[in-house]
Amino acid sequence: MKRKGILIVVSGFSGAGKGTLVKRLVEKYDSYALSISATTRQPRAGEEDGREYFFLQKEQFERKIAENGLIEYACYCDNYYGTPREYVERQLADGKDVILEIEIQGALKIKEQYKDALLLFVMPPSTAELRRRLVGRGTETEEVIAKRMRRAAEEAEGIEKYEYIVVNDDLETCVTQLHEIIIAAHNTPNRNQEFIENIRTELEGEK
Ligand code: ADP
Ligand code: 5GP
User: Fold this and answer.
1) Does ligand 1 come within 6 angstroms of the Cβ of 11?
2) 2: which of 13, 76, 93, 162 is 20 to 30 A away, CA to CA?
3) How far is residue 151's CA from residue 135's CA, in Å, rounded to a whole number?
4) pTM exceeds cut of 0.90
């Protein structure tokens, strides 16, 4: 039986450590493919076009939307972010588990289109630690940090829409937990419908 890839959505408040976590996950295990999103926000120091994001002008991004080149997109803190279609569909067909590190509006759009998608939410150990990480990253102005903390308060309302939460306290523990959840998710009946139907059909002959 060919292994089927799962679409895995990882969301969480800005600064919770999603980026760090998924980077470590794909380094540690080779069954994952990490989707690179497109965005209209400015690159941070050290970020490279085509590595962290495809950095686009607003007009370029809107053209991608019009061409149906994104499987979802959303506006987050005044910028567009979206998931390019081609890479995701190719990797899933290849049997890879594809990771989308995206915010909540996008996550819900994915669930509408891909009913077997697995939705995971990364929690910080506490709000104080969240703020410490966001400030400590040193990539945003005070004003942007305040905006992201306000957005976190809104996003917190939607956590129950996700299947699992993982608490990113110790990074390595959290990476292992994430991987174990994904392994277990491969064995749910809804993600193995074809296999189940085949056995049922074969068993018909035993009646
Ligand atoms: P996000 O992608 O969720 O916005 P990042 O991955 O950029 O968050 O992490 C925010 C900051 O927190 C970074 O400086 C990162 O090094 C740090 N960080 C991430 N995970 C942990 C952890 N488990 N313990 C301590 N610091 C962490
Ligand atoms: P950042 O600017 O910190 O890189 O990302 C801001 C937010 O946008 C994060 O919550 C991140 O998960 C989300 N994000 C990144 N890429 C995408 C995407 O392709 N689609 C959606 N909907 N959100 C994204």
Assistant:
1) no
2) 162
3) 15
4) yes
